[in-house]
Design goal:
Blueprint lengths: L1 H24 L17 H16 L5 H14 L4 H16 L13 H16 L4 H17 L3 H17 L1 H12 L7 H18 L7 H9 L23 H16 L2 H11 L11 H9 L1 H9 L23 H4 L3 H7 L5 H4 L2 H4 L3
Helix pairs in contact: 2-3, 2-4, 3-4, 4-5, 5-6, 6-7, 6-8, 7-8, 8-9, 9-11, 11-12, 11-14, 12-13, 12-14
Bound molecules: heme C.
The site of heme C has 20 residues, from helix 4, helix 11 and helix 15.
Length: about 350
């Protein structure tokens, strides 16, 4: 009898585990059986990826068609070119996300979401240990699902987002909170997003902001930018990849709090953005100052729903809905581009150990 009970328990546990794997841990992608990647260093691939980085870091939104042309040509030359596939996914995402740069937003802008879904999925199949990809893939699914009224795809994207949190908390929590920040402030997921941001902030930047604000400010001010670290903690300070990560992170957290109604705490987060060591070189200081000045007024403004294709000013919406939704973290000022990062050895920093994390 005892044996049977033990056996049945084992069966239940095993079924549960298999069920968990299928429901929560599996990731569906457009490409089905692709896992062979290559580290391509052909002239065409190197140039296309270099062009991507230069243009992305300079915030040249208008150059996106040229970036896509070069990356796509490199993809046609070798469809297993890992870095090229990554950057095709990210560039399509950028095109969609910062669409407010366009004079008017065409309906076909949504095609970038579908293509991001394809390329990010393809890259993820080749490198499933990079949870950064999973975070973006999750967002692409949620966006495509919402645009096409596909509840199943939205749910799939959400579950992938939770998996990306399990796989790489510090990146995943911010990322899912960012994706979900477009939801109405009354949605239960908005509360969840605030919790994720609070947890990540406590873990990565400073415990106990409420009672130790001055210490937190000092700690952030001393976060030297990362130019060599390739371990997971590299995503916390500023770096060559995201030269104003700290500023963008706290601007977003401030926006989320303001939208929730807690504009006073929101202002504290905006103040923390100002502590970043490179703040003086950040191109969006004025946007931040406007947010600090108008925090209380912005509660209503940030809650307003924005229709597809509607144009909004950068001061009138939360970060994700604006033309600076990627560049707050990723853009270098012209001065930084020409001097500080001019001789940066990108090739040795973004090597295989950067992409293939343990
Ligand atoms: C809050 C800051 C922040 C925002 C906003 C942000 N990112 Fe990032 N991004 C990061 C960080 C941090 C990393 C990880 C850097 C690392 O791995 O060292 C990253 C990684 C990347 C990479 C690197 C891929 C590679 O080859 O390693 C790309 C490309 C990228 N983000 C594009 C985007 C796009 C497009 C958007 C807008 C939709 C965006 N990011 C919004 C902080 C941000």
């Amino acid at each position: 009898m005892k044996k049977i009970i033990v056996l049945s328990l084992l069966v239940i546990v095993a079924t549960g585990l298999i069920g968990f794997q299928i429901v929560f841990n599996s990731v569906s992608t457009v490409n089905q059986s692709k896992n062979k990647w290559e580290w391509v260093e052909s002239e065409q691939s190197l140039q296309a990826n270099q062009f991507f980085w230069d243009q992305f870091h300079s915030g040249n939104y208008d150059t996106i068609p040229a970036i896509l042309e070069k990356l796509t040509a490199a993809y046609l030359e070798n469809p297993n070119d890992l870095k090229t596939i990554y950057h095709l996914g990210f560039t399509h995402f950028w095109a969609l996300s910062e669409r407010q740069h366009l004079d008017s937003v065409p309906g076909t802008i949504i095609d970038h979401a579908t293509l991001a879904l394809k390329y990010l999925g393809e890259a993820y199949k080749m490198n499933p240990d990079d949870a950064r990809l999973l975070s973006f893939l999750s967002a692409a699914k949620i966006i495509v699902g919402s645009l096409s009224n596909d509840e199943g795809l939205i749910k799939d994207g959400y579950l992938n987002g939770l998996k990306s949190i399990r796989d790489w908390k510090d990146f995943g929590e911010f990322s899912l909170a960012y994706t979900l920040s477009r939801l109405p402030h009354t949605d239960p997921n908005s509360q969840k997003s605030l919790e994720w941001m609070e947890e990540t902030t406590e873990r990565c930047y400073c415990e106990d902001i409420d009672s130790k604000l001055e210490e937190c400010k000092q700690k952030i001010a001393q976060m030297a930018e990362n130019t060599t670290n390739k371990e997971r903690e590299r995503i916390v300070p500023n770096s060559w990849v995201a030269p104003h990560n700290i500023e963008g992170y706290f601007m977003f957290y401030g926006d989320l709090l303001v939208k929730s109604g807690d504009w006073e705490k929101g202002k504290i987060m905006y103040q923390l953005a100002k502590q970043a060591p490179d703040y003086a070189n950040w191109d969006y200081k004025e946007v931040l100052e406007n947010r600090i000045r108008n925090a209380e007024k912005n509660v209503e403004l940030f809650r307003k729903e924005i229709a597809n294709g509607e144009k909004v000013n950068v001061d009138q919406a939360i970060m994700i809905n604006t033309s600076i939704s990627c560049r707050t973290c990723h853009q270098m000022s012209k001065k930084e581009f020409d001097t500080k990062y001019a001789g940066f050895d990108q090739k040795s920093y973004l090597d295989q150990s950067f992409y293939f994390l343990d």
